[in-house]
Amino acid sequence: MLSQRALLLQNSFKNILHRYASSSTTSLVNVSTSHDNQICRIKLNNPRQRNILSFAMMNDLMKAIVENEQRSRVIILTAGDQTVFSSGHSLKELAELSKKNASASVFDRCTELMLKVRHLSIPVIAEVFGLAAAAGCQLVASCDIVVAGENASFSVPGVKHGLFCITPAVAVRESITNPKLSSLMLYTGEPISAKEAYEHGLVSRIVGENDLERETNKIAEQICAHSRPVVAVGKKYLQMKDEKDNLLNDYKIATQGMVENLHLKDTQYGLESFIKKTRPVWSHQNDTI
């Protein structure tokens, strides 16, 4: 049996996660359907916070995806014409949770979301108008098809803030055919353009920004013209072919890396600087918290 102290710690941990996992009564995503409810659009709708993949946002996304999988033929993930598709995890949330030894829960939930998108029985299309960064880029890379506006950009900039994008790298390095390009992105934190992303396999098609929604809907309608079980079995075996290694295990290892990274004092300096909007000063020491 658990000791009283262990039970108190367990309940405290649950309360912490519940606080972060709960959004307001208004969902952080908007859901709409078209084409006789066969096409489901899930719109990330927290522009004030650059559509961060907070615990609450990931929960709302997961809920919307699960609720619409069986009734839909295609799911489109979009942020409409917002300048940021998603800026990735909430660094403020991670900074707070790391001090409570609860940060792994965020990466575990993120892994569940990414694998759900990958293993969904219907195709998922990412429609990217603006910037997809860090875990936002990871979400895009996890989709089956990516349609990007000509001014879209993609980055994994965590290294700039002291938190290397280890978990986003799992999906990004799998999607980008040039491993040297993904390494360049990860080590410098600099973005690539939609054109570069298309040339190296991250993006399926680039269109003018005014044509983005129209082109995405056209692709979705083409998919809807085909047999649902045929598409489902095709996706199942495409994923089996692509995932030569154990993707879940890759994410487990990457999560360990993210948690280890968060325990570095330099990481805490970086996150604090990001929150305060100041330039980080690195110690370059292996000191941990």
Automatic annotation (TrEMBL):
One Pfam family named in its UniProt record: ECH_1
Keyword Nucleus assigned: no
Main location: mitochondrion
Record-linked Gene3D superfamilies: 2-enoyl-CoA Hydratase, Chain A, domain 1 (3.90.226.10), Lyase 2-enoyl-coa Hydratase, Chain A, domain 2 (1.10.12.10)
Superkingdom of origin: Eukaryota
GO biological process, one term: fatty acid metabolic process
Keywords linked to the UniProt accession: Fatty acid metabolism, Lipid metabolism, Mitochondrion, Transit peptide
Annotated localization: Mitochondrion
Annotated Gene Ontology cellular component terms: mitochondrion
GO MF annotation terms: hydro-lyase activity
Residue ranges of coiled coil: none
Purpose: May play a role in fatty acid biosynthesis and insulin sensitivity.
Name listed for the protein in its UniProt record: Enoyl-CoA hydratase domain-containing protein 3, mitochondrial
Species lineage: Eukaryota, Metazoa, Spiralia, Gnathifera, Rotifera
